[in-house]
Design goal:
By secondary structure, the protein is of the alpha/beta class. It has 11 helices and 21 strands. It has helices at 24-35, 83-88, 101-113, 117-131, 134-144, 163-178, 188-194, 217-230, 272-278, 339-352, 396-411, and strands spanning 16-20, 39-44, 65-66, 94-96, 151-152, 156-160, 183-187, 204-208, 212-214, 234-237, 240-246, 249-254, 257-261, 263-266, 286-295, 306-308, 313-318, 321-330, 362-369, 376-379, 386-390. The strands form 4 sheets. Strands 4, 6, 7, 8, 15, 16, 17, 18 and 19 form a 9-stranded mixed beta sheet that branches. Strand 17 (313-318) and strand 18 (321-330) form a beta hairpin. The longest helix is centred in the middle third of the chain and has 16 residues, at 163-178. The radius of gyration is 21 Å and the shape is globular.
Length: 437
């Protein structure tokens, strides 16, 4: 795909932009802003560039897949009847920590409303508009960072254990096709030919042809960060606090030291709502706690990401092994990891890939999630020189590039190339009701 490279602005229109958050959304935003000629400072508690602490970031632990097929929201019709089971089963693919339920209630009510048919139809259309530009948003960044060698273009394989399970999923596959997703339906023999090291626990499969993976999120982040520095950008290590307006500029502190910028981008993932509150914006953001388990000896046993659809996690071959990542636990930012969830993932890999060997690293991180599975991308209604870019849920890596381009357009005061009105930060009230546009 040909890369779109925007023109630099004249010097009189260039700004000093501070980006809070150095995950993939923040890094992509910084590079797109630099392409327009802006001076960029990134703030993060654990920035990349060889920092071992970066493994705590959500960007470190994801399933490493750019997934243009991800047009379906998490909430779908009928999900409301599954909530009691989500609370009762703390190891299921989608679970709720019962102690967190009182805090979660406004988000959960909005989440269940987002699962109504009319809302699902609307959300799919919005996600499709974003996902249709996902690779175009990433392509120039891969080139800038000299990172194309980290890409694996073998698609992504979903597997189904019975014809009934496949038939139920195929209605959603047809919805994907209606929105331009390329996929191939497979019988068991075709699956076996593609992935001979899988246990034959499948009946049918679907290959999402245009999906691709990143061999190492750590290496990609490091390359993006180094290019930012080469372009004149700087990184500040520390926690951003005290965000507020300062006349025509934005003021903030990093570990107690004061800073100012012409424009601020909030891209700090699950921690973004705290910063938005300091500006007077209440955003119905919560966190999905995701887990991964690494099998260091199994990286060559699969050739593409594989997902047994009912299990809720992907198995992705990477440079450092086979990473099994996924599931959803709604439990906030404070509770410790639930080791039983990692155990369930590990046992699933042992069942589906018998030669996987021993499990190694386990990890838990926070996906910043809105009730409707749509990110927040747009300017603050309280302070126009603050732009929000967070809440991407399961598709932060996928949408990082196109989000960065949208951020650069918003900072430059240009009409975004995709309508961001459905992504505004105040689309929900604090009690979970959806506001009209």
């Amino acid at each position: 795909m040909a890369a779109f490279i925007p023109a630099e602005l004249p010097p009189s229109r260039r700004k000093h932009v501070a980006v809070i958050g150095a995950g993939f959304v923040g890094l992509a935003s910084a590079l797109w802003l630099q392409a327009r000629g802006h001076q960029v400072t990134l703030v993060d508690r654990q920035p990349p560039l060889g920092n071992a602490g970066w493994r705590q970031a959500a960007s470190y632990g994801n399933a490493c897949t750019v997934a243009p097929q991800a047009v379906l929201p998490v909430a779908t019709p009928g999900l409301v009847w599954q909530v009691p089971a989500m609370i009762a089963d703390q190891t299921g693919p989608l679970s709720i920590r019962w102690r967190y339920l009182p805090h979660l209630l406004p988000w959960l009510l909005a989440f269940l409303r987002a699962g109504r048919k009319a809302e699902v139809d609307r959300i799919i259309a919005v996600l499709a508009s974003l996902l249709g530009q996902a690779e175009a948003g990433w392509t120039p960044l891969f080139d800038m960072a000299n990172a194309r060698h980290l890409l694996r273009r073998n698609g992504c394989l979903y597997l189904y254990k019975s014809q009934a399970e496949f038939d139920a999923a195929d209605a959603w596959h047809r919805r994907r096709e209606q929105h331009g997703v390329n996929l191939t339906r497979l019988d068991a023999g075709a699956v076996r030919e593609m992935e001979p090291n899988l246990a034959p626990l499948y009946h049918r499969g679907v290959l999402f042809d245009d999906a691709f993976t990143i061999d190492s999120p750590r290496q990609l982040a490091d390359r993006l960060a180094r290019r930012i520095v080469e372009n004149g950008g700087t990184f500040l290590a520390g926690e951003a606090t005290g965000v507020g307006g300062d006349g025509s500029r934005v003021a903030f502190s990093v570990d107690g030291a004061g800073h100012r910028a012409d424009h601020l981008v909030v891209a700090s993932g699950a921690h973004s709502a705290r910063l938005a509150r300091q500006l007077g914006d209440r955003i119905l953001l919560d966190t999905e706690r995701g887990y991964h388990v690494l099998f260091p000896e199994a990286g060559r046993l699969l050739t593409r990401p594989v997902c047994f659809a009912e299990e809720g996690f992907y198995m992705t071959p990477m440079a450092d092994g086979l990473r099994a990542a996924g599931t959803v636990e709604l439990g906030g930012l404070e509770a410790p990891p639930n080791p039983r969830r990692a155990d369930v993932i590990a046992k699933g890999v042992e069942r589906f890939v018998p030669r996987a060997g021993r499990a190694g690293e386990t990890w838990m991180g926070f996906r910043p999630s809105m009730p409707d599975s749509l990110p927040v991308i747009g300017n603050s209604p309280t302070l126009p020189n603050v732009t929000y870019a967070f809440g991407h849920g399961h598709i932060g890596l996928t949408l990082a590039g196109v989000t960065g381009r949208l951020v650069s357009e918003l900072v430059c005061g240009e009409p975004p190339h995709i309508d961001v009105a459905p992504l505004r930060c105040d689309r929900f009230s604090r009690w979970g009701w959806k506001r009209q546009a």
